Each structure stands twice: as C-alpha cells, then as structure tokens.
Amino acid sequence: MSETSTEDEEEKSGGGLVKIILIVLVVLLLMVGTAVGTMFATGFFDEKPESEDPETALQDIESEIEETDGQVAETLGPKTAEIEQKFVISYYTFEDAFQVNLKGSKKMMQAKLGITSYFDEDIMFNQEEGTEGWVPRHLVGIRAAILKLLRNVSADKFDTPEGEQEVLEELRLVINEQLEKHEKTSAAPIEEVHFTELIVQ
C-alpha cells in the first residue's frame, strides 16, 4: 500500500513538472511569434528599395546637380527671377545731416548717412505721400534714435576704422530696432549703414 501511494505521488509530481515546462514553452512560443509577426507587419524583412540606400541617394543628388549645372541660364523662369529680385540691394540716403557734440569732448561731429536693404525698395524707401515706405514713415523716430546714439559716442571712436565700424554697426541695430518695433517684423531689414559724409572737428 505504501509502495502504491509513493508511485502515485511520483506520477503526480512528474506530471506537474511537465505541465510547468509546457506552459513556459507555450509562453515563449507566443512571445517569439508576436515579435516575428510584428517584424513582418512593419516590413522589417522586406527588401529595401535602392532609393533608401544613402550612397544611392547621394549619387542621385550629385547627378542632378551635374545635369542642372550647365542649364541654369537657360531655365531662368519667373520663380528664379522673382527670387533674384528679392536679393537686389537698395540704397537710401538721409537728406539732412546729423550734427552732435561728441561725448566727453569739445569736438563736434557732422555726418550724412546712407543705409542699404535687401527688402523691396518700395516697401523700405518709397517717399510718395500716402504710400511711404518703412523708413520715411518712421523717419522722426529713426532720426531721434540715431541722434541719441551719436551723442553718446566719444571722439576716439573715429580714430580707427574699427571704431568707426563699431559706430556704424550700432547705428544699424538702432535703426532696425525702430523698424522692428513699429512694423512688427522679426527680420532685420537694414543690412548696412554707411557714412556718406563725416566731419569731426
């Protein structure tokens, strides 16, 4: 009787172990099957087209550049002309000179200024009444800002080309600040400021 019960217990424990192994195997097979199925669904095993190969794409770009290199002049269309027109530089000269006493000195400066822009000339500099460009429209504020800046420049700034260039850059920033404030533009419309006349005495 004891031998029979021992055999039954061994059969039960052996059967329990086989069940656990089977369950683990089934779970593993399900996981592997899910992973492989996902890879098939996402196209992992599909052949990659040549266009996705970086080297092929680079060769295509290089061949396109070579083909269009000699044809640029022939294929100038309205779009190209329009783009080129946007990069034409326009000039504006302030009619009245700016005259100030320089900071910490008895010297006086008299200067005439010119400005340049890549923006449309009419938008920037048109002086016709009723359709004034940005600069003529805000001329009072721009002149006031320029005079304020020039009154705080010391005479030694004009002793070197570098110092003079610093003053011109500061003037450019001040003019752009006025235009950006009043015209709500985020781009700096004035590209450069130039002294067309400069007297320091």
Q: Helical content, roughly? A: 40-55%
> Which fold name corresponds to the CATH topology of the largest domain?
Tetrahydropterin Synthase, Chain A
Distinct helical segment count: 7
Quick one: CATH superfamily of the largest domain?
Answer: Band 7 domain
Largest sheet: 4 strands, antiparallel
Average per-residue pLDDT, rounded, comes to 82
Q: What's the total count of β strands?
A: 4
Which residues sit in consecutive blocks of at least 5 with pLDDT less than 50? 75-85
For the record, the CATH architecture of the largest domain stands as: 2-Layer Sandwich
Oligomer class: single chain
Total domains: 2
Name the shape in a single word.
elongated
Explain briefly what this protein structure is:
The chain is an alpha+beta fold and 201 residues long.
Structural features, described:
Residues 75-85 have low confidence and may be disordered. Strands 1, 2, 3 and 4 form a four-stranded antiparallel β-sheet that branches. The longest helix is centred in the first third of the chain and has 40 residues, at 2-41. The chain is α+β, with helices and mostly antiparallel strands. It contains seven helices and four strands, in the order αααβββααααβ. The N and C termini lie far apart (129 Å). Helix 6 (139-151) runs antiparallel to helix 7.
Give the SSE layout:
Blueprint: H1 2-41, H2 54-69, H3 78-86, E1 90-93, E2 98-101, E3 108-117, H4 121-125, H5 134-137, H6 139-151, H7 161-183, E4 190-200
Antiparallel strand pairs: 1-3, 2-3, 3-4
